[in-house]
Each structure stands twice: as structure tokens, then as C-alpha cells.
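User: Quick one: structure for sequence A, then sequence B.

Assistant: Sequence A:
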Amino acid sequence: MFRRREQRSWGRMASDFVYPRGGWTRAFYYVTHRLRRLPDTPERIARGIAAGVFTTFTPFYGMHFIIAALIAKTVRGNIIAALLGTFFGNPLTYVPIGVAALKTGHFLLGKPLAEGTERSFGGKFVDAWSDLWDNFLTLFAARPADWHGLRIFYDTIFFPYLIGGAVVGAVVGVACYYLTLPAIRAYKRRRLNRIRKKFEAIKRQAETAPTAPEPVSDTAPDRPPDHPARGE
């Protein structure tokens, strides 16, 4: 019932993630429409959105859905709203999110983010994953493990990103809560008024409709018995 008519390939899904088929504007309105029609209270929906937005500022890429659902459950927010809120992080926003989180984290830790370092942001990711793979192979080879690249990645990228992302994400998440809550309340109120007016119109129409006449019986009424004539 809910399956797609046309099954998408992995390449198609990757392409839609970078740029949706209908464009980012249509994707934004689709997510907004789904959020407004969630069957829950505005407060729970807004808390779910805040949880999803906060999660996008964490460095746990690939686990945002799981983390958003756990945070939403903790703060008693709507889990579906939290999952939809993670779309705040997308290819258009990942770069500014990462820059804000890293700069804030380095500032709070007292380690200014050095410009023009020997390895770029992406290069340190590559070094970290390379260390993980190489050290996994050492389980089957007679050579020691080397965590140098992963240690640099943790000290200069992951930990500052985690600290800065938590601070910036909390600020943006709280802002999203207070921005979306009145909007969701207003939408729910308008929708409830539309439904109430529709039922009132149906009720008035039913009250003013002419009543159908009672059906006339086809059988003739019973004739009174004949009285005998006098003198008989």
C-alpha cells in the first residue's frame, strides 16, 4: 500500500539526497506539510522538531535518525517530527553547520581553529577511516596498530565539533521550538475551525431539508360490517 510505484536505484537515491527531483523548495513544503498534519499536540510536535534540529549539529553522521528519536523520547516530543526535523541538515546546510560547530568548539576549548593546516577537514576524515581500516587488518597480520590519524581527527575535529555542535545546536533547537510552536498552534486552530464549520453546515442542511411524506398504504381500509335491515 505504501510502496513506491517506481523502485529507485541507489544512484537515484544518492542523487535525490543531493538535489531532490522536485527541488529543495518542494521538499521543504512537503516536510512542512507533513509536520503540520501530525496527529499530536503542538507542544510535542515542536519539541520533536527541536530535537531533530539539535541532532543535525552533532558529528554522528549516519546516526542522526536514531539520536533524534532518542532525544525526542527523552523530552517527550513527537518522534516523527524529530525525524523530519533532521532534514534541517542537508547538503545545503552541512557546511555552515560544520563551520559553526568547529569554530565554537575550538573557541570554547581554547584552541583556535588554525587556518591553512597541513590536512584539510576532509583529509582528516580520510585519515581517521584509513586508521580504522588498517587497524582492523592488524587483527589478521603481525604488525602493531597505529592510531595517529584517528587521534588527530578526534583532537582537532570530532571533540571540538561535538562540544561546539552541542552549544550551537541547543541554541538553534530552542529557537526552532519557539518559532514553530505558534505556527503549529495557529494551523491546528484554523484546521479545527474548518472542520467545525463543515459539520455545522452539514447539520444545518440536515435540519432544513424537507421531510419526506409518509407513504400511503395501497390496501383499502376495512369496511364496517353491514347492519341488518329493520324488520328482518
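Sequence B:
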Amino acid sequence: MDDDEQQHVDSASSSPVASTSAAAQAEHEQFGRAHQAQQQPHPQHPHQAHSQQQHQHAPPHPPPSSLWKDGVSYAHAPDLTHYLESTFVPSVVPQPDEYHAKDQARQYLEKLADQVSPGAKLLPFGSMANGFALKNSDMDLCCFLAKDAPVRDPSELVELLGRLIEQETNYYVKMLPRARIPIIKLTLPPTPDVPMGMACDIGFENRLALENTRLLLTYAMIDSRLRTLVLFLKVWTKRRKINNPYRGTLSSYGYVLLVIHFLVHVKQPPLLPNLQRLSTPDEPAVEETIFEGHDISFFDDLEALPSLFQTTNHETSGELLIDFFRYFSKDFNYAHSVVSIRSDKGVLPKVQKGWHTDFEFDPELTVRDQHKLCIEDPFQLDYNVARTVTKDGLYTIRGEFMRAFRILTTPTRSPEGIGAVINSLCEERED
């Protein structure tokens, strides 16, 4: 399971189980492959989310006057943009055959779920469904029983479905029926159809995870620059060892929310609307927007969106990446502010959330939630997505943002040009 999905499956668990798959090794090599392929043309990936309102990027080679803003050099921005969009993104996203193989696996597993509970459906969520997947990402599925199916305890379903999968497939099956959030973890060895193997997690009746996936996918479909930044940060943060909630840093999901916050609330004019604040002509019934006490409503009518919001921000992905690093290294108030993409201004005071102390004890947890970095989940408002970030972890994260900003704004005389900048930026950090 990708760590950006882990919080939805086990947000209340104190000891989340890390998945074992080929994804980590594959992501470890993403930048090397992308840089080696820089001179090779890549077709546009058919699964790439396209903007419903076609934004116009800045010219690939802006006039010299635009290379300096507020005393900061953006000389690398044109070549950085070209690298990100023409080389990096096509080299790291899943190809159609990977999507096909995983959907075939999902359909087969769904047939087995139907044997356990007639009418059961396995629906994808997380990065493979929200537009932010890298090659060989884990597949996350949620099992929903038919409305007229007998009510069954998730622990029982884990054991029944898990044993059936063991009998009928070649998956290595790990059943966790007594976990706070019961789950089945599957691992498939490499095959000709799936050369890197496959890892899959199956949870049960987790509607919040599906709604979160829809929210992120809707954002991704509005402007492709969001996806470009997120994919780069997912790989870069792993290279720089700041993408591991089990070791005191931040999950991929947390970084996705940071980027959305930046593009919705920080950049002026904004690149993205606040989907949880846009008014809708036909308001759905209250019972359809409240789930287990959480408001899950957001604007998702992309055809109607241009009448309510169209960005006039034409900054390139290279410029945006530089500004992202500047904002989170110099401007964001980590001591007092909470990132909140659903709020009007994008930030809330820590004291308003009760997250102003260093940590708090939860009687149901065996660990303490840290409040060094605070990122509010868009639906579970009492949940700090960055609760695992320690004091040392935040120091390292912010230090890496500063380092990246410095590298991207320092002119280079290397004959390799942007290649030298990328190599320096993405050099793997020692533990």
C-alpha cells in the first residue's frame, strides 16, 4: 500500500503495517531512468489527466525580463519545465499495460469476493485511481457488500476472502483480521504480464477513502500542472529520504495536500479552485454529503466548472516548482499554522484545532500524535495527516526544501545544463 493511501485505511492505528513490494525499488530508480531518457522523445501518456479548461503555459523560452522575480533567478525554469513535462512525467507514470494487468487482477479478485458475499464489489482507490500513480505502485481496493447482503464483521470477511484467495491464486496472502482496520495484504511474484510483480491491499466499506480519491482526481483533471508537481515531489522526496511516516517524515498523501494548498491558496491568481467551497446549482441532499459525521461534499461537475472558475495563471511547472520550494522553506509559518485546503484562506491557527501543543496522547493509540507539522485532512477534520512528523523530521524536510530552492535558483555553467541541476537536486541522500 502506498503511504499516501495508508492514512485512509489505518488513520487511527498506532502501528501501521508497511507493505512489501517492488514499488519502493522501482521508485528508487525513477530519476535515473528519467534522466537517461531525457534526449529521447516520449509520446503523451494516454492515462494522463487532461485539463477540462486548457490552461496556456508560459512560453518555453520567456524573455530575459521574466527570468528574475523578486530578486530570484528563474533562469532554470524553461529547461526545467521542458524536462518535467517532456521527459520526467512520461518516464515515471504507469503505462496502459500496467493499468490493464491490474484491472484484470481486480476483476478476478472481485469474482472471488462475490463468492464470499454475492454482489460484492472491489473498487480501486488511492494513487492508482486518483491520477498520481508512479510505475509499479501498489493497488488498493475497497470491498463493498451489496446493500441487501447480510451484515458481516470485517474481521470475518478478511479471513473468508483471504483463505479463498490463498486457495485460488498464486498470491502471497497476509491476513490482518485483528488490526484496528482489518485488511488483506497480497503480493504477487513477477510474471511475464507483470514483470515487477504486484502488491495489493484489500480493505472493507471505506467510503471516505473513495471520496478522497474522487476529490484528488477531480483536482488532477482540472490542471495538469498539479500532477506534474506531485509526481516530481513523490519521487524527489523518496530520493531525499523525507517520504517515510514510519521514520518521522511525511507521507506522499501529505505532499499532495501541500501542493494543492499551494496552487489553490498561495499562488495568485490561483491555478485551482477550492472545490469544497464552490457553490453548486443543485445542492445534493444532506444525507448524501454527510458520512459518519464528515462532510464529504465537493464540486465535481467539470463541465460546469468553466462558468465558475477559469485560471488566468500561466506560470510554467518549472516556475511553480521553484516557488513551491521557496514558500515552504521561507514563508509558511510552521509554528502556528495548519494547512487546510478546504478552508477559505487555506490555513487555520493551530490553537483553533487544538494542535498547538507538541503532542497529545490518544488513549486508543500507543504512540503520540506530533503537531510539529499540521495538515488537516479535507474530510476527517480532526485528523492531522502530518501527525507522524517529528521535530527532527520537520527540520530535515524544511532543510531539503531550502536546498532545492537554492539549487534551482543558482545559475550553473556546467555544459550539461539542466541535467547537472537535476542530478544535483535529485542526488540520493544518505541516511
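Confidence is low (pLDDT under 50) at residues 4-30, 35-65. The first strand starts at residue 68 and ends at 69.

User: Thanks, that's what I needed.
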